Amino acid sequence: MLINNRCKKCSKNKSCTKRYKTEIVEDLSELPEDVQLSITDDIEKRLLPQAQKVYKILGIEGAEQYVNDEIQCAGRTILKMLNEASREGVYIDVVSKTIVYNIERRKMLQKFLEDCKKSENTVHDTIKLPCELDVGEAKKYFVKAIEKGYMEKTNSGYRWRFGGDKGQARLGYFAIGYISPQGL
Question: Where are the beta strands (DSSP E) in 1-82?
Fold first, then answer.
């Protein structure tokens, strides 16, 4: 417990790391540096790459579902740990580490999702289509095709990346078939 921003166990300032062995802490800075490092490393090297993989494969909708599922899982884990803490003989430091890990997990995933949405909006806003093609969800399909590497934006418009000389014809088929199924 902090009294006047000092730990009552050792009289150190707010960043005391001895508290976590006797009390439940919820702030990453209150854990020892090695524990802080292991938590951030696990999130950055395991959890975020998985979220990025989901985003790359399934797009923003899939990433949003994945992040929401992970956040719910983190919330359930926090509640479970708080319930465990009330049992006799439980190691409070383990409970604290687990709670802090899941709080950080939620923060990082929420930030990741916000960054993905900003990125989506930025890419979506940079797509300029001729008025004939700018119908319905055309920009969404162009964005996905660019993200997946099927086409690229050039100074003069867009270029289908596969098919050599037939690439532009394939871009035309893409535009007619997927974006404007009724035809132009």
Answer: 2-3, 6-7
Is residue 82 predicted with pLDDT exceeding 80? yes
Reported confidence tier of residue 121, pLDDT bands at 50, 70, 90? low
d(CA 80, CA 100): 13
Instruction: Round to whole Å and give the CA distance between 173 and 167.
Output: 10
Indicate the DSSP class of residue 98. Answer: H
Amino acid at 160: W
DSSP annotation of 171 reads: H
**Which of 90, 74, 105 minimizes the C-alpha distance to 23?**
90
Contact 95, 84 (CB under 8 A): yes
Q: What does DSSP assign to residue 13?
A: B
- In the DSSP assignment, the letter for residue 35 is H
Q: Domain locations in the chain?
A: 2-126, 138-179
Q: Which residues contact 85 (CB under 8 A, 6 or more apart)?
A: 24, 92, 95
What is the percent of the chain where pLDDT is above 70?
73
Tell me which residue has tokens 């132009």: 184
* Residue listed under structure tokens 């604290």: 96
Helices (H), the chain: 33-42, 48-85, 92-126, 138-147, 167-174
* Model confidence pTM above 0.90: no
CB burial of residue 95 (10 Å; 0-12, 13-18, 19+): buried
